[in-house]
Fold this sequence. Notes:
By secondary structure, this protein is of the alpha/beta class. It has helices at 13-26, 43-53, 68-81, 101-107, 130-147, 163-168, 181-191, 215-229, 233-261, 266-289, 299-331, 338-365; strands at residues 3-9, 30-36, 57-61, 86-89, 113-117, 124-126, 159-162, 196-200, 202-204. The protein folds into 2 domains: 3-230, Alpha-Beta Complex (Spore Coat Polysaccharide Biosynthesis Protein SpsA, Chain A); 233-365, no CATH class. The chain contains 12 helices and 9 strands. Strands 3-2-1-4-7-5-8 form a 7-stranded mixed beta sheet, with helices on both faces.
Amino acid sequence: MKILFITPTYNEKENIGKLIPLVLDVNGNIEILVIDDNSPDGTGELVDNMAKDDPRIKILHRKGKLGIGSAYVEGFKYAIKNQYDLIFQMDADLSHDPKYIPELIRKSEKYDLVLGSRWVKGGGVIGWPFYRYLTSWGANLLTRSLLRLKPKDITTGYRCYKVEVLKKINLDEIVSTGYAFMEELIFRVQRAGFKIGEIPIIFVDRKIGKSKMGIKEIISSARAVFKLLMKQKKTRQMVKFGLIGISGTVIDFGILNILVYFHMNVYYAAAISFIIAATNNFIWNRSWTFKEIKNQKKLHVQYVQYIMITATGFLLNLFILKITLPYFGRVFSLDITRPIVLNSSKVVASLFVMIWNFLGSKKIVFKT
Ligand SMILES: Nc1nc2c(ncn2[C@@H]2O[C@H](COP(=O)(O)OP(=O)(O)OP(=O)(O)O)[C@@H](O)[C@H]2O)c(=O)[nH]1
Ligand SMILES: [Mg+2]
């Protein structure tokens, strides 16, 4: 079995020289490919020299700092071309302890991709300040739920892939050149139906060298995650429907409050604001959210159906206002809290009606 470790480097001269022998010592089948982005500190030259004496050490020079994601894509292509069986991702800064290698290899017998995971039982991080811990953990949780990824640690850079996985994924389709590459790969591997396993690792913060993780990287990662989200038709529809829902809600709340301010009866005001907001939503959903639906029904058919659904939704809206207003009224009994009473009821009513409208739109109005 041929095993390739891929390690991208940018200014890791102090670390990479220590890491390489540690990794190669674990197992005689291991080779290592360093992908250096012309590090100003001379990392590339150092590895060139090491490679002269040891054929298990390879290096790929790139002309400048092109990002960790694009480095891995090049590494994966190299691994496929040179027929390796197992491919590892590993940081150069000694944060990933080589002692986990045998277990990663063992676990890869049962799984197509094995992650060294910080966020499973027994895993963790040493040496991070609290804010770093919190942001990393939070970003992981948020991205996991947005992209519906099953593994617990999706940003980890310590991994072991079977070569079949990399062959099946279209490497040229990958959109993330930077750190979002981590999430994107899991997204694609999961979607392709491969089995992903995790082993706990303790990640030790780098002792030498500077972090490449900055605000620029965070923004570009967020953009990449958004791009991935929008790749799924279902999510795309929900995001658009949600945005339109927000616009409709603003209109609904605004008109309701203005009319009540001018002493209109609450229920009449609610009816008017609701109808205007619903019309706004229909127009936008038809021309934007469900635009991609082919063979849409005739406009007037959709319109009648939509009116029927929103009319029912509107009754639901009134009904909820009717039962919640007295309840909220008891909770907030002071006169200055009247707007709070009104809007609390409205929040509850709007939530229910939005769900009703989404299901009705998707399953009836815009179904072909
Ligand atoms: N070739 C290449 N390697 C990179 C690039 N950015 C980061 N790396 C390497 O990718 C690995 C992970 O980067 P790190 O800076 O350690 O990222 P991190 O672990 O999230 O953050 P710190 O450990 O705090 O620095 C390291 O080996 C870096 O040298 C890049 O643009 N090109
Ligand atoms: Mg690091």
